[in-house]
Amino acid sequence: MSKTNNPKSREPLFEADRIYTDTTSEGGDFRFDAAVARVFPDMIRRSVPGYTTLIPMIGIITARFAQDGTRCYDLGCSLGASTLAMRHGVGDRDCQVIGIDNSPDMIERGRHFVALDDHPALVELRCEDILDTQLENASVTTLNFTLQFIEPGQRPELLSRIARATQPGGALILSEKIRFEMDWEQTLQTDLHHDFKRANGYSDLEISRKRSAIEQVLIPETIGTHRERLLDAGFDRVTLWYQSFNFVSLLALKQA
Ligand SMILES: C[S@@+](CC[C@H](N)C(=O)[O-])C[C@H]1O[C@@H](n2cnc3c(N)ncnc32)[C@H](O)[C@@H]1O
Ligand SMILES: O=C(O)C(=O)C[C@]1(C(=O)O)C=C[C@@H](O)C=C1
């Protein structure tokens, strides 16, 4: 894996993900800390099937739903990959693009990526908890693999706040790792996901150590649960626009 250089600091912008190769380190739950932030672009590309397809599609969806005089939020923005896709989707519309993440390491590194992206639309990255942050006047909101890290009991209120903040004709893009009700389907889709990771150079040991580390912090739900909760939260329509194995993206709409 080659390193990408940051011309401003001469430090690599990111490194190859070798976090779970180190068998001497303690286990512990997965956290979005400095070590993860340093390897995140490599980690997410090799771990989430279709991530490199999803990101530009978020730009395309944003271009359809962004409205002049509104805000576009990217909640759990990490290094800002989805935020920058939204920025490009907004084009020359009068929109404020706001990326929010509660990991200081992600936000600090994310600001370098934003600075390197040459585009006139303003982007603000905020280090805040999305459970506390005020949301208002939104046309497009993205939760790209973030809701899965929120404690399930807190998910309905967060989605209701997003729905209330969304203007008529606005949208929420919700990407998640999901689980399946049928045991055979859960087993097959998980195996295929692990095949994908293996094909991307992760060893069986790395796969199994990461699996244990995320077990208590990444809680997947079924597509049915997501759909129902989005409608309960105040969205009028929900469509599945992307699936690759156990990773999906839904589009929830407020009527115009
Ligand atoms: C899988 S990453 C998101 C990837 C990113 N959206 C992208 O497309 O590259 C999940 C992010 O959610 C953030 N996160 C988790 N819980 C959060 C919370 N309560 N408030 C803000 N950010 C949160 C994590 O710090 C992490 O950066
Ligand atoms: O499910 C896994 O095995 C993953 O590695 C997925 C996942 C995610 O969906 O966010 C978990 C943590 C990292 O943020 C990158 C990818």
TrEMBL record:
Its EC number is 2.1.3.-. The keyword Membrane does not apply. It is an enzyme of class 2 (transferase). Keywords: S-adenosyl-L-methionine, Transferase. Pfam families: Methyltransf_25. CDD domains: AdoMet_MTases (cd02440). It catalyses: prephenate + S-adenosyl-L-methionine = carboxy-S-adenosyl-L-methionine + 3-phenylpyruvate + H2O. Residues 74-170 form the Methyltransferase domain. InterPro entries: CmoA, Methyltransf_25, SAM-dependent_MTases_sf. S-adenosyl-L-methionine binds at Y51, G76, C77, S78, D101, N102, D129, I130, N144, R211. Belongs to the class I-like SAM-binding methyltransferase superfamily. Cx-SAM synthase family. Catalyzes the conversion of S-adenosyl-L-methionine (SAM) to carboxy-S-adenosyl-L-methionine (Cx-SAM). Homodimer. This is Carboxy-S-adenosyl-L-methionine synthase. It comes from Marinobacter halodurans.
